[in-house]
Amino acid sequence: xxxxxxxxxxxxxxxxxxxxxxxNKLIKKTSxxxxxxxxxxxxxxxxxxxxASILIKDGYTITKKLDKAxxxxxxxxxxxxxxxxxxxxxxEVFESIKEKNSKMKVGVMGCMAERLKRKxxxxxxxxxxxxxxxxxxxxxxxxxxxxxxxxxxxxxxSKDETYGDISPIRLNSNGISxxxxxxxxxxxxxxFCVVPFTRGRERSRDxxxxxxxxxxxxxxxxxxxxxxxxxxxxxxxxxxGLKKDFKKASIIQRKTALRFHNxxxxxxxxxxxxxxxxxxxxxxxxxxxxIKIMAKYKNICNHIHLPVQSGxxxxxxxxxxxxxxxxxxxxxxxxxxxxxxCGISHDMIAGFPTETTEDHLNTLKLMDxxxxxxxxxxxxxxxxxxxxxxxxxxxxxxxxxxxRLNEIIKKQQKHSLYRSQQYLGKIVCVLIxxxxxxxxxxxxxxxxxxxxxxxxxxxxxxxxxVEVKIKSCTSATLIGKAIKISNRI
Length: 489
Ligand code: SAH
Ligand code: F3S
Hints:
This protein is of the alpha/beta class. The chain has helices at 24-27, 42-57, 81-100, 111-116, 119-123, 139-147, 195-199, 207-219, 251-255, 260-270, 288-296, 313-318, 325-338, 357-370, 387-391, 398-421, and strands at residues 33-38, 61-62, 71-76, 105-110, 129-131, 152-154, 177-181, 183-184, 203-204, 224-228, 236-237, 258-259, 275-279, 303-305, 343-350, 374-379, 427-435, 442-446, 452-456, 465-473, 477-485.
């Protein structure tokens, strides 16, 4: 998801929350310490912040030290087999820690919990608690069940957005940018994808609670929010409930329903000093209205993450993607026309079942047409329970998948470099986020297009918008020198 970062283990994810952050009542000395580790999409990282909030209300403090924890929670990803293997390996590490501290409890959250349900307890003896993405409010009760030595599993999926009333605790945040979820679940049923099974049906969040969360972030000094959903363009608020039940809504509900472009303009209008991003867009649902709203408001970032998965119509059909390559090109053309300096990124899958050399060459051709700024590229991984797993045999050999994936990655690197080079000698507006990994004397921030820029710190501070002149680049990073504080955003 958007910039759809599928990170593997982020060791720095969890921070020790300063004690003065909460009311004394909440943090009176406690032995209840939770360590939370997250994998997978941004939605999982956002969900972990909700879980942190729920547990703090239940008397926990957050720790980033595994050996200090009385409870370890791992927020898991099922999107590819490799993601699940990583989690299993981590559970082995937790097991060795538990050997030294038998009172410590281990809970599994997220998509693997939902996929495997109570089977998890049988397969992994170390696991005490299994909780799916819609059941996090039940964690305190489940922990009680663990204490009482009862089975602690809740994988019920919900019809409601579920967490709109919870103020997430920002974990290891840079204090500058934050995720705000706007929809949960997905109704699209792409044949390769496990998400509709693990995250349930699509539902949208009340715009009032979205605005409240952003207002809260603004008051805390945040400068950028990313509106999150599996498929943001299909946002639909008609008073609550599943998207698929919209047809049963009253005439008034239908007339006053809010769609994504409405939400986007309300947010942009309400927070003119905050950069707004969103992710992920699905080509079949992205409307020209959204592109026009982006053009209208300077604070909506000119970047669209627009996964296409394949450049072949035959494969798109087998994937149950509801658009053709021709329609995708039309959408790209509209973006280029309405927002000439928009960054565009993608997700691509190499070696979907039955993919021929010709299909693969069409993917490379599509990439040449769009020349994406960056992308997330994967080899097809069969997921149990999906339509593809049931109906189409995973017939592309691993070495061919790898070969095709490498060609796709190589092409992307070439295009990323091409895109970076277009900025040489130009002045870009950067929001300073953190110290650069390259050097402690450099800041790192991003342009609206989501390109990373590093430059000497001088007297600038995080959270400032600065004008930076670009002097050199790599395929992934622009390197420059700050000129002045920007009056752009
Ligand atoms: N709409 C979602 C997509 C989630 S999955 C979002 O918000 O990002 C993210 C990406 O993982 C997909 O776009 C796809 O490229 C990749 N992916 C999903 N299932 C996969 C599978 N079975 N094998 C390989 N890649 C997969
Ligand atoms: Fe997955 Fe397709 Fe939804 S990739 S998350 S089923 S849009």
